[in-house]
Amino acid sequence: MMAMTTLNITYDGMSADVPVELDGHVSDADVRRIAVEVVRSGGVPGMHLVHLRDDAFQNYVVDRFRGARGEDRIYLRPKVPFGAPAKQGSWCGTAENLESAAPSIGT
Questions:
Q1: Is-contact 25 55, C-beta < 8 A?
Q2: Among 33, 48, 72, 94, who pairs with 42 as Cys (CB 3.0-4.6 Å)?
Q3: Considering Cα of 79, then 80, then 83, then 89, what sign does the dihedral take?
Q4: Is 7 within 8 Å of 31 (Cβ atoms)?
């Protein structure tokens, strides 16, 4: 049975919803493939990228939720590097960095 699902795609600093009709449960790989197709075809508001690579969403996370009215929602988003070590020269909000970045009071 075909069901309407909202697919939210986050790519290159942009995020948009697109309604897609899916036949039951689809795999994460299928979600990524569908996302490439709708972005290439211009079906995602603000994301018409004709030459998007086949593997553009290869390392993306697929999250599935049920909306407040029972509708299915799928989010395709980049992995977030929480817990990853900070790159050399980047600022990370550790206590040590906060102390060195904070202005001294009373000096």
A1: no
A2: 48
A3: positive
A4: yes
Give the confidence band of 87 by pLDDT, cuts at 50, 70, 90: low
Judged on CB neighbours under 10 Å (0-12, 13-18, 19+), 31 is: buried
Which tokens belong to 14? 């942009």
Residue 30: enclosing H or E segment and its boundaries?
helix 28-41
Cα(107)–Cα(105) distance, integer angstroms? 6
b/e code 34-60 from CB counts within 10 Å (16+ = b): bbbebbbeebbeebeeeebeeebbeeb
Classified as helix, coil or strand, 100 is helix
Structure tokens at 69: 């009215």
Query: CA distances (Å), 83 to each of 1, 33, 38, 79, in order?
Result: 41, 29, 32, 12
Q: Are 7 and 38 in contact (CB under 8 A)?
A: yes
